[in-house]
Amino acid sequence: MPDIGPGTQMIVLFFLLLALRVPVAFSLGLSALYAMWRMGFGLELAGDLITAGVARYSLLAIPFFILAGALMGSTGIAERMIRFFRVLVGGLPGGMGVVGTVVCLFWGAVSGSGPASVAAIGPMIIKGMEEDGYTRAHAAGLVCAGAALSIVIPPSIGLVLFGVIAEVSISQLFVAAILPGLFMGLTMLAVLPFIAPKGAGGSLDRLVPDPHGGLPYAPRLWRSFRDSFWGLMTPVVILGGIYSGIFTPTEAALVATVYALLVGGLIYRSLPLRALYDTLADAAASSATVMLIVAYAGLFGWVITVEDLVGTYSGGLLALSDNGWVILLVIMLILLVAGMFMDAITVMFITLPIVLPVMHELGWDPVWFGVVVMINLAIGLITPPVGVNLFVAANVARLPIERVARGALPFLAATLAGLAVVAAFPQMSLWLIHWLR
């Protein structure tokens, strides 16, 4: 390799390994280990760093929310919820694409984790959209993008971390993220007319069978609501517990798991022991896949921190202009690029110490800025090469990562446009806060 720093060599090697079709987790790990060797660190340090990368308390939410989602799927809770939203939106153009978007937005208030949302609702949404005529790649792409909004729509672990690092009110961040999160969902709906198959949105009872399918709209909607009531109560239980201070967002993951067990086992009585074992095994496998990427991404991010790549590159970019809008554009570009390689938690801990002083100097509202940061990081979840949602969706849809990435491109473009609007109009984030005062 040319005489460049170990950090830059690591990035070059990472892309080379990806080109050779080495799995992304091992591409991250091998390139990071090479950089550590070049930097003179003993490789025995790698074990401690990998352990530290997955030992963050907030990351406990991922396996528990994956388990909660798997339980809701295996017990029929998620199916009942999808049936309700299918009846609610009726025969709108776009069919299961509209249902998938709405369910993703709703699920964001349940999980707070993009990968967990993909694992929980992805199988049913992808299957339904494919049977409605969508390509499997576009269906997986919609789930990727919609589930990414889980870190924007409260309760969001990312917003909690931003509030802690930036010393901003977490409750205000939660309120401020509601309207932008819904707006980002609308941008996804705007994509559907361009990719929806002709005739999508007809009678889709065959996709999610409805025992009340012969009734008029109003009584059918009521009965589907009654059937799905306990599932629809999930975000009420979670958000109510968080806002009342009964438990933290991370603890909410365990509450969601226990809630799913109680509803599936005691209320719906649809959780036999064999199904419980299979659900636990599937959730463990999905969690292991996601956490392996997170572990090696933490090692990769540690090398970037030690080499100060983000600080070096962002320092050069920030010196390009004194215009506040240009600087904001540069910061968003840094976040988007960083999100291509690292998990959201790592990106925040690396970049926020650099950009927060700039935020204060330019007089930006920290609550609005926090929402902009979260949307940037949400987009990073669906951006190659290390968009975690892409890999979970590829696993769920049983497609190569390249096809899922291509299917997500229209939604990636829509979310980038939505990010531009949220960044250009801070009132969208701040209006609800001012109205509630």
Shape: globular
Mean pLDDT: 80
Distance between the termini: 59 Å
Instruction: Give the amount of beta strand, in percent.
Output: under 5%
Number of helices: 22
Please count the beta strands (DSSP E, at least 2 residues each).
0
What percent of the residues sit in helical stretches (DSSP H or I)? over 70%
Radius of gyration: 22 Å
Which oligomerization state do the chains in this entry correspond to?
Answer: single chain
Overall description:
The protein contains 22 helices and no strands. The protein is an all-alpha fold. Helix 8 packs antiparallel against helix 20 and helix 10 (170-195) packs across helix 19 (366-380).
Short structural description:
Helices cover 76% and strands 0% of the residues. With 437 residues, it is mostly helical.
How is the secondary structure organized here?
Elements: H1 6-19, H2 24-39, H3 44-54, H4 61-74, H5 77-89, H6 96-111, H7 114-131, H8 136-148, H9 157-166, H10 170-195, H11 217-227, H12 229-232, H13 234-243, H14 249-267, H15 273-307, H16 309-318, H17 324-339, H18 344-362, H19 366-380, H20 388-397, H21 401-424, H22 427-436
Helix pairs in contact: 1-2, 2-15, 3-15, 4-7, 4-14, 4-15, 5-6, 5-11, 6-7, 6-8, 6-10, 6-13, 7-8, 7-20, 8-20, 8-21, 9-18, 9-19, 10-19, 10-21, 10-22, 13-14, 16-17, 17-18, 17-19, 18-19, 19-21, 20-21
